[in-house]
User: Fold this.
Amino acid sequence: MSEVFLQRVEECAVNANTKPTQLREHETLVEVEQQYVKQFISKVWNDGISRRLSTITGLDLGEKIGIIYHFWQNQNTLHVRTTVQKTSPTAVSVVDIIPGAILYEMEIHDLFGVTFVGNPWMDKKLLLPETWPDDLPPPLLKTSKSPEIRKRLKLEVE
Amino acid sequence: MKMSESTSSSNPTRREETAGLMKYSTENLVPFGPIHPALKEPEYFKLVLEGEKIVEVIPRIGYVHRGLEKAAESRPWVQNMYMFERTCGICSFVHSLCYGQAVEELTIYKVPKRAKYIRLIIAELERIHSHLLWVGLMGHWAGFETLFMWVWQDREIVLDIVETISGNRVHKSMNAFCGVRRDMPENMEDHIVEKMKYLADRARYYREIIDTEETMLERTQKVGKLTADTVEKLCAVGPMARYVGIQNDVRLNDPYSAYDEVPFNIVTRNEGDVQGLLRLRLDELVVSADMVSYAVKHLPDGPIRVKIPPTIPAGEHSSHCEAPRGEIFYYVKSTGGRTPDRVKSRQPTLANLPAALEMLKGQTIADVPIVLTAIDPCFGCMDRMSFLDTETNKQWTWSGEQLRQYGIKYYKNRR
Assistant:
């Protein structure tokens, strides 16, 4: 079961110029460059390797911002990881392939400041308050400190 | 309340900006929510109406967003477990279970078998209490107050059992890394089995009622229709996927805890409407009650906990569990320190929200409370609903109770 899954992921990965790594039994990680993300995810979704997207996770990796798409099918988990530069955080949206990803992308946009090109709701806020100052860095970046956020938001309320 | 989108619809440039949304000349924009602290959690929905029909829904969540993921990065591993348990006031246990499983996988320690069974018992009791709460609320919003009273009375039985086991009704704080904090009380077995049998009988009886009672049939049948294809595309989870026939259940697909040892049948329905959701959840009550009885009878002996050091080895891992509302997901990343580098938590209601918005499209205002309650959301806020007619600029506000009465009256007049 697991071998078949891994084999199918490997076939997809060839086109995306990458190779899967098996982290544990039933758990596979694929590192995909930003330009191949849409092609790879479209293959995973449309070929039925996985039709279940758990969520999309954002990560602060220092110079870069990591984006992980967590797929699962039965006992197998597939993590598709990509990175974007912190200086120009622009990623490609997968909403036209997986419409259910729309809120996950909005969440990362709010909390990490990554803009997903192709997401129709990128101009809206999902989690952050309307009073969030524009010059305050996105809250989940490591450079953004909780006391600073509290201080700034309190000023906004007063 | 922000009205800028609706009031500026006469402005041609603004209309172009929101093209696709403002395509009907006769539409009204109805802000739904956001704030009334008296009722559960606040949410805000912008409903675009065409006459009485809903054509578009735009969500705005985050009114109770408290930044738990950020807070987790500065707290010790074990403290986070009890912080994440407080994410939800209904399905609290499953949050700590899922977070705990993700962290446990990073260590070399294994969970004792007895602890796995106790975890299953608490998780299933929580599902019973959550589903009963939901069935009661459905009765309330449909104008069937008697059902609400009966069901919530039965819910007390489950809460009493949970309190006897854990000492608390809602925030059980039962979990620890690689085990549970409290053992099952002695001589509880017969009591739990008897009560579970009673609850299963009650669930079957409620099932009969909702199948025959006219009020419930009229309010729920053919309301909130979705197809399996739409549900799959919108990544809906749990009962929201099972009510259109998709076998989406983490307990079955990817067993965790003791779910691979306790026999159970997954329930799916094919109706694809709110009536199907009611039947599904009532059938699941029977399944969960049987699972608790089985687990209590077959509870293995042995230790309930393995103590682990406060630092977690570097690495990353994800875990998912089946909460009462569907798949819950945690991702943790450790750099080997006393605090996590990153914790990501995704609750089932966020995953079910796109599907719920799709369910609302094509429904009338009278169906809004029942459809929004049908996904078993972690939000309430039916208490404030203001209406704006864009043509006459007439504005009025209804309280939650007025909206409920409107729904009941609407269906009465239709007869």
